Each structure stands twice: as C-alpha cells, then as structure tokens.
C-alpha cells in the first residue's frame, strides 16, 4: 500500500470521527469503546496521517455501519446498530461508505475524488481558503440568553451566531469534502481582508448578514431580497418573470406559524477575487437557509439535486435557484429540485 493511499485512508477515518457529526465532538475513546473496547492508541494509529497503520477490513465494516446513521449517537453514547435495524437508506449509505473505505484500504485513489466531480462543495485546488460567513444574532435576541453573554460563566460563542444549524451542517460537509483546504467560519462583522478574497460561503439574508447584502449588490443577480423590517411583513425575494415584477414570499398561518419558507442558492464568481467563488445560502427564515444548505449536503437528495444543477446550468459561472422549503412539525424539509413545483425561480432563464 502506497504512503499516499495510507494517508488518504487515515485522513478519511479521522474525518468521519471529527466531521461527520461535528456537533457531537466524538473522541477516540468513545470510538474505541463503540468498536468493541479497542485501545485508544489503536484508533490513533489508524488516524495518524503521517505514519498510519492500515485498519483491518472487518473494522472498516464497523466504521461503515456506525457512520451510516446518526442514530448511532444518542447524545451520550456511541454504539453500532444491528444491520437489521438499519433503514433502506441507511443500508445504502453503509454500502457506499464501506466501498469507499475498502477502496482506500487497497491503495486506490480516494473515492472522494469521484465526489469532487459532482459535489458543488468540493473545491478543486488544495490550500485554497474557504470562509463561511454567518450573521451575528442581533443583541435584542441575545440579551436574555446567558449562553450568549460573554460575561456569563455559561458563555458559548456559537449561541451568538444566526443560523447555527445551517453553519454546523455546512461546515462539516465542506471540511469532509476539502481535507487539504483551510475552512473557517466568521460572523459578518469580523472578516479580515484575506477572508473576502477566499472562497466565500454566505449564510443568511440581508436582514442580519451585512456581507450577503453587500455581495448581492456587487454580483450579477436579478434577485432582490425584501427584508422583514415592516411590522407584520414577512418579506420575500423579488424577481422578474416575463418582464413583470413578482415577490416570492414564505407562507405562514393565521397564528404566525411558518408553513413554507423560500430558499435562495446562488453560485458565482467572487466580486473580490476573480479566481474564487461566492456562494449564498439564504432563506427568509432560518429554516429556508438550512433548506438551501441541505439541498446540496443531504445524502438523500444531494445526487439528484446536483445532477439537476449540472443539467440545467452546465458550466455557467453564475446561476441561482429559489425553491420551496416545506415546514412540517416545525422542521424544515430538504427541497427536491427535480420536482418542478419546488422550483420557484431560476436564473439564467432556460432557453426557449
């Protein structure tokens, strides 16, 4: 097995533990216990990128089963579910992951290179910085939350971020897809000059995220986000169709419960560095922003949504899509862009 292949497998195993569920904070000790009471040093040797030890195939089977489903982690303990308890989707995910790990173990090129062809969150060149930009939650929403107060002993900086669920989802995915690239996240008020000229990924809309507002003004995008400043207004995305202005709005019931958000995904050339990209994942509410993210991270929809974008926009440098994000039981659902009724606006318009 070549040193390059050995390091690729070690990097992937470490990435599964650290980045598959970044909010879980899984330790080598927890993983060792879940895999049958192994030693921490053994897990460490499999993850050692400089001098890796090749994990046995049967251990890779355990890895694949473990990381095929979030149900392996209940918030306190990590365990391998019996195969018969896996759903069909989880079985498919297990098979794909096991194929990848065994492929790497045999010294082949990383399967993730195949994903680089289809995944919009894979950046081709190593060592290019990727900066995810979130808004800071306005002070009026933080003032009664001790976890968001720097003076409190319970302070957690992530509580000061708007759209933390979208941030966690996307940060883990981008890190996993780009192991050789530095990936960071910032609030919109704390960017330095080098952040602006990296690959920019903007989460959230113009109400909170000033960088999203600035970038949308600078790029070629015939979509205007109408904020929620006016009392009782829910805002929306203003577009032009057949020469007519149209406002695409979220849907709420009479009690103010969100029934359907709207999400914008935009990809284009960065206005600050022509050799870098800017991406916008934005909704009128947080569930729309998360929906824009999960459209291209959710393994159940990633392939079909990516294939749709490739077919619809080809090699265009700049494009956008606005879609529905249904909300059921308070949870935003991942939009399926292959369904025509879910696509509310596309730019550039399709050729006649």
Automatic annotation (TrEMBL):
<dbReference type="InterPro" id="IPR010982">
    <property type="entry name" value="Lambda_DNA-bd_dom_sf"/>
</dbReference>
<protein>
    <submittedName>
        <fullName>Helix-turn-helix transcriptional regulator</fullName>
    </submittedName>
</protein>
<dbReference type="GO" id="GO:0003677">
    <property type="term" value="F:DNA binding"/>
</dbReference>
<feature type="domain" description="HTH cro/C1-type">
    <location>
        <begin position="13"/>
        <end position="48"/>
    </location>
</feature>
<dbReference type="InterPro" id="IPR001387">
    <property type="entry name" value="Cro/C1-type_HTH"/>
</dbReference>
């Amino acid at each position: 097995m070549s040193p390059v292949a050995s390091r690729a497998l070690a990097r992937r195993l470490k990435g599964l533990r650290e980045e598959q569920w970044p909010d879980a904070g899984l330790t080598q000790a927890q993983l060792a216990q879940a895999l049958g009471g192994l030693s921490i040093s053994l897990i460490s040797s499999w993850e050692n990128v400089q001098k890796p030890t090749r994990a046995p195939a049967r251990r890779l089977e355990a890895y694949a089963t473990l990381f095929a489903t979030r149900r392996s982690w209940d918030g306190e303990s990590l365990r391998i579910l019996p195969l018969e308890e896996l759903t069909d989707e989880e079985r498919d995910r297990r098979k794909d992951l096991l194929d990848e790990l065994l492929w790497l173990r045999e010294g082949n090129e990383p399967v993730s290179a195949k994903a680089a062809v289809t995944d919009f969150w894979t950046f081709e060149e190593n060592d290019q910085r990727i900066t995810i930009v979130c808004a800071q939650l306005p002070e009026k929403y933080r003032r009664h939350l001790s976890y968001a107060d720097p003076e409190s002993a319970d302070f957690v900086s992530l509580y000061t971020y708007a759209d933390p669920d979208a941030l966690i989802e996307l940060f883990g995915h981008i890190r996993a897809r780009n192991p050789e690239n530095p990936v960071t996240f910032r609030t919109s008020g704390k960017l330095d000059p080098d952040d602006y000229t990296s690959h920019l990924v903007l989460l959230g809309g113009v109400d909170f995220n000033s960088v999203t507002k600035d970038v949308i003004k600078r790029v070629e995008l015939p979509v205007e986000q109408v904020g929620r400043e006016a009392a009782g207004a829910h805002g929306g995305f203003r577009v032009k169709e057949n020469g007519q202005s149209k406002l695409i709005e979220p849907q709420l019931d009479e009690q103010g419960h969100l029934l359907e958000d709207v999400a914008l995904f935009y990809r284009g050339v960065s206005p600050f560095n022509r050799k870098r990209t800017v991406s916008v994942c934005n909704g009128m509410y947080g569930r729309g922003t998360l929906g824009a993210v999960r459209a291209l991270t959710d393994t159940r929809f990633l392939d079909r949504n990516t294939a749709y974008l490739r077919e619809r926009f080809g090699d265009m440098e700049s494009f956008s899509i606005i879609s529905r994000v249904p909300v059921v039981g308070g949870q935003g659902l991942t939009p399926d862009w292959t369904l025509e009724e879910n696509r509310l606006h596309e730019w550039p318009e399709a050729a006649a």
